[in-house]
Amino acid sequence: MEVAGVRLVIDHVTASSPSWSLTANGVFSLGVHLISGDVGSGKSTLALMMAGLRAPECGTVTREGISRMMLSFQFPEFHVTGLSIEEECRSWNLDPEEVIRSVNIGVTGVTPVLSLSRGELKRLHLTCILARNYDLLLLDEPFSSLDCAEKEKICQKMSLRSSGITVIFTHEQNVFPHVDHIWEIVDGRLTDCGDMPGAIERWQHAPPLVKKLVSTGRTPRELTPEGIREAACRTHE
Amino acid sequence: MITFENIRYRLLTIDTLTIAPGVTSVIGPNGSGKSTFLKICAGIAEPKSGMVLVDGKAPRETEIGFVNEFPDRNILFSTVKDELASPLRFRHTPCGETERTVRACAGTMGITRLLDRNMQDLSGGEKVLVALAAACISRPRVLILDECDSHLDAQRCAWLNTVLHASGAEYVLRCTQQMETAAEGDYLLYIQKGKVVHAGTPAVVFPLLSDTPFYPQSWRWPV
After folding, report:
1. Backbone dihedral angles phi then psi of residue B138, each to the nearest 5 degrees
2. Residue A1: pLDDT band by 50, 70, 90 thresholds?
């Protein structure tokens, strides 16, 4: 379902902590946006401001046409509200049996949520999040704690999102979903690298393999595993 | 050597395993028993049957530094400075020496700017850096890290390898989901459904995983 008139406008926003400061300016339109940045560069704070959970020191964040929004915190344990898997699934208004089948981690409804490993908890959390549609979906480090196989599965689910704005804050270096636009935080400033695939050539935080592909004239057209494989196997333009 | 004999604990089943000094990476699917394995190595969990020995001693009789996979579960104190000082204070290290060691460790770890910060105000990655510093500050013989690189950027991950080698730890056991990182270690364990399915050097183990997502990208597509 296409959502018309949906935009996230970051207008000269600033935020700071004792050890960093951040200036951000940009318009996020429909599609999947990737934001990379170093530890402590303000990625999570920017996510909170985009979600309206933290006020910027200066500037404004405007969510145009956005009525359904979700922020996924970096730490899945911050989202837990139920004692058991069943309670947790019901807190998302989802059918526990369906979620358990989808997560595929060999648990039952009565299994205590906090007895799961961190990777299992992240899988449960992301399955609940991605079961619904949002006009604005903010994912803070969605790939941390996931094993390599699960990263690919979650990326496939993210790539299937056909509407709304998805913003992924990550320092992941290996597995990515389909991405439309790349941003990064460099020297305390949110920098717009542009639309894919051209953005890759301006992306300072690009993974080493991607940088090598660019330097050998094989810029990937997609960041997905298939896109990287195609670029790596490309023999001529 | 770290030796394992007839371990039975939760889903973990290890008949016999030997880990040599060096950096050992532990990889495998979520929920396969990696964290349980690390907790047994650290002496945090004790198997119902079987034995783990670090050069002939029980883990609880060995100096071990441990970083939990849940960053907040490493935190005991309010400020970074107190958190870093805690392993030294617990062993009644004189105040002056504690202060000097905390400053030196923070400098090595690049977190001097964080010393007066409140732990709860740190980012996820910063919490991991502090937990790592606290694990290293007493110069443990065994350093055990449960996916602490999942919260670090690429630059910090590369730097982490330098820190591990400089830590002086004879044994480093690290669970990671970064296969490029695992490829740089001395040894590799692949755990699946509670069993150590493959053990050896990365050059031996990774080819056995070449048809899985656990094979390093840079090996699959050398550019």
Report:
1. -95, 20
2. very low
Beta strands in chain B (DSSP E): 2-9, 12-19, 22-27, 49-54, 64-67, 142-146, 171-175, 187-192, 195-200
pLDDT tens digits along A8-49: 999 999 999 887 899 999 999 999 999 999 888 899 999 999
Which of A30-39, A144-153, B159-168, B204-213 shows the lowest per-residue confidence on average (mean pLDDT)? B159-168
Residue A137 Cα, gap to closest chain B Cα (Å): 20
**Residue in B67, B177, B210 to test binding to A, most A beta-carbons within 10 Å:** B177
pLDDT in tens, B154-202: 778 878 888 888 788 999 999 999 899 899 999 999 999 999 999 999 9
C-alpha closest to that of B150 among A69, A15, A146: A146
Asked whether A213 and A232 are in contact (CB, 8 A), the reply is yes
Q: Is the pLDDT of residue B70 over 90?
A: no
| Beta strands A181-186 and A31-36, pairing class | parallel
β-strands A181-186, A165-169 pairing = unpaired
Helix (H, G, I), strand (E, B) or coil at B145: strand
Neighbours of A163 (CB within 10 A): 15
Q: How far is B130 from chain A (nearest CA, A)?
A: 12
Question: What is the Rg, in whole angstroms, of the alpha carbon atoms belonging to chain B?
Answer: 18
Token pair belonging to B20: 């040599």
pLDDT tier for residue A4 given thresholds of 50, 70 and 90? low
Structure tokens at B108: 């090595």
Q: Chain A within 8 Å of B223 (Cβ-Cβ)?
A: yes
Which chain A residues are closer than 8 Å to B72 by Cβ? Answer: 75, 77
Q: Best interface-test mutation with B: which of A144, A185, A229 has the largest number of B CBs within 10 A?
A: A144
Q: Centre a 10 Å sphere on the Cβ of residue A178 and count the other Cβ atoms it contains.
A: 19
Q: CB of B29 within 8 Å of any CB in chain A?
A: yes
CA dist., res. A111 & res. A124, Å (int): 12
Helices within B167-208 (DSSP H only): 179-183, 202-205
Chain A residues with CB inside 8 Å of B123's CB? 39-40, 43-44
- Kindly state the average pLDDT of the residues A157-164: 85
Q: Look up tokens 């692949």; give the residue.
A: B190
Residue A89: DSSP 8-state = H
Structure-block tokens of residue B95:
């105040």
Is the ipTM here above 0.85?
no
Query: From the list B28, B125, B179, which residue is nearest A39 (CB)?
Result: B125
